[in-house]
Amino acid sequence: MKIAILGNGGREHAIAHQISKSPKLNKLYCLPGNAGTKLIAENVELDFYDFEKLGNFVEENKINLVIVGPEKPLVDGVVDFLTNKGIKVFGPNKTSSQLEGSKIFTKKICEKYNIPTAQFGIFNSVKDAHKYLEKAIKPIVVKADGLAAGKGVYICEDTRSAKNAVDEIFNGKFGETNQILIEEFLQGEEMSYFVISDGKTFKKFNTAQDHKRVGEGDTGKNTGGMGAYSPSGLINKELDLKIIEKIVKPTFKAIKDLGVTYKGFLYVGLMIKDNNPYLVEYNVRMGDPECQTILPLLECDLLELINSCCEENLQNQIIEWKNKKSICIVVCSNGYPDTYKKNVEIPNLEKIKIDNNTFVYHAGTQLIDNKIYATGGRVLNFVSISNDLKVSRELVIKEIENLKWKNGFYRKDIGFRIIDK
Ligand code: AMP
Ligand code: GLY
Fold this sequence. Notes:
The protein has 4 domains: about 1-95, Rossmann fold (3-Layer(aba) Sandwich); about 120-185, Dna Ligase, domain 1 (2-Layer Sandwich); about 190-315, D-amino Acid Aminotransferase, Chain A, domain 1, CATH 3.30.470; about 325-420, Alpha-Beta Complex (Glycinamide Ribonucleotide Synthetase, Chain A, domain 4). It is of the alpha+beta class. The strands form 5 sheets. Strands 10, 11, 14, 15, 16, 17, 19, 22 and 23 form a 9-stranded antiparallel beta sheet that branches. The chain has a 5-stranded parallel beta sheet with strand order 3-2-1-4-5. It has helices at about 10-20, 50-60, 70-75, 80-85, 95-100, 105-110, 125-135, 160-170, 235-255, 290-295, 300-310, 390-405, 415-420, and strands spanning about 1-5, 25-30, 40-45, 65-70, 90, 120-125, 140-145, 155, 180-185, 190-200, 200-210, 215, 220, 225-230, 265-275, 275-285, 325-335, 345, 360, 365-370, 370-375, 380-385, 410. The chain is about 30% helix and about 30% strand. The protein contains 13 helices and 23 strands. The chain binds adenosine monophosphate and glycine.
């Protein structure tokens, strides 16, 4: 098969790595990819948000299947566009992608289908939102409705900061809007829970826990993710059943009731309290860096699995996992998540030992004249799988130190809730 993967992050490199191992693969394109995907695929500089251009490229190169990594093209309807052209594509359509594209859409589904989530209110004016906030219990959570690259959520300790968040959102910080979501602050521990669906049936696709804050001990600003481990230490049979019955099944029913089906990965962002799950958010794709930590544990052929979803034949697939644990530490450019230098060379990457249990997935990197340059905030993902997360973490840290990269930093405490307790 000829495959194209859309995206340029660590998630897409991890997907490309799995796909490249499939005996079904003839040719792999990454649009646009990064320095890591360049070693296993053909990188193509193409703006895939120009759907016409993308469609033409796929047709001209006789690509059999397109795999969509990030959320934005999904929310913008890339799947509908390609499907209408008769191109096979893995990812949810525009209607289903509202699960990530609109937090209010998801909250309304939670309300209608009785899905456990934080209590919430939807406000159409600054005045009403401010009035509500004066009496609300703090901390309180204020959210922009649409995609905001992880920045549209404000956890507010007092009325003043909550009002300020409302003002910023209504002033158009994340695009023009006339609606805002305010919700109860949930106590508990977070977990990322994944399923894969072909529209007829779905299967569990492992769990992970990521660390979103930039600083050790989960402090400081939110980032795209500083590291993750899999499986989550919180998962157990009873919790699994509750997540499926109370959250996942009613959500797929809601999507079906809208007259569409859901094909692709679904990322269920949960808060767990007293072994009970509450939905925090949906993402309509794999997580990043969860994907980088989960996929190395997969025992079966990812391409076959994804293709079976496109052919609505997931029922007959058996998804097997290595009986191991996985940890991923993200190396970032100094200054991230604020401003950082671009186009800085990363030395010594060729010295990093990679084997069946150790992987380096690139994110914001570029290969120029045989040298690797950091071009993004999150740059490299170091992954190790073993029976012991502590051993894996030590190994990964040793490898990162071998880079001797002065322009980068990383968190040494990924997995601390489970490793260091
Ligand atoms: P989201 O973009 O909705 O995933 O929110 C980003 C992060 O904000 C989540 O991963 C949580 O850490 C936090 N968060 C969002 N909503 C809530 C809530 N209602 N209570 C507590 N934390 C929340
Ligand atoms: N790791 C969080 C996300 O992918 O949205």
